[in-house]
């Protein structure tokens, strides 16, 4: 049931469109495999009446727009304390300048929307999702 009804979007395929093969146990207890495109469409719409699915093979596009680059910034740079906030002594602030904190604050509010490797929108989180008084606007630099 899940392949037919989840994952759709305006510009994206449904999950059932990505199924290349389904393996299932039918009502007679027999293991069956379906990979024919026409039969896959029928199997996707059976709403669980096909049998017990034991395996799905999905055909996926190569990931081309995301690169994992793990970083481990120091706590005050990952979560900048608000101006005037009394930072607990357990938090190491040595070597961190006011300029470093201001840059970390600026970066923590920056939103970048990426679609298939292209930056399609960029803006401040407060501008995009709500400002100090809670109202939201749609102002984003394109």
Please explain how this structure is put together.
The protein has 142 residues and is α+β, with helices and mostly antiparallel strands. Helices cover 23% and strands 22% of the residues. It has 5 helices and 5 strands, in the order αββαβααββα. It has helices spanning 2-5, 37-44, 75-78, 98-108, 125-129, and strands at 19-25, 31-34, 52-58, 110-115, 118-124.
Major sheet: arrangement of strands: 2-1-3
Mean pLDDT, rounded to whole units? 76
Helix count, DSSP H or I runs of 4 or more residues: 5
Span from first to last CA?
Answer: 39 Å
Mind telling me the C-alpha Rg?
Answer: 25 Å
Oligomer: single chain
Task: Identify low-pLDDT runs.
Answer: 131-142
Shape: elongated
Q: How many beta-strand runs?
A: 5
The biggest sheet, with number of strands, parallel, antiparallel or mixed sense and barrel status, is: 3 strands, antiparallel
Instruction: List the helices and strands in order.
Output: HEEHEHHEEH
Query: Which class do the helix and strand fractions yield?
Result: alpha+beta
* Percent in helix: 10-25%
Percentage of residues in DSSP E strands: 15-25%
What is shown here, in short?
This protein has 142 residues and is an alpha+beta fold.
Topology:
Elements: H1 2-5, E1 19-25, E2 31-34, H2 37-44, E3 52-58, H3 75-78, H4 98-108, E4 110-115, E5 118-124, H5 125-129
Antiparallel strand pairs: 1-2, 1-3, 4-5
Structural descriptors:
142 residues, alpha+beta, two-stranded antiparallel ribbon, disordered C terminus
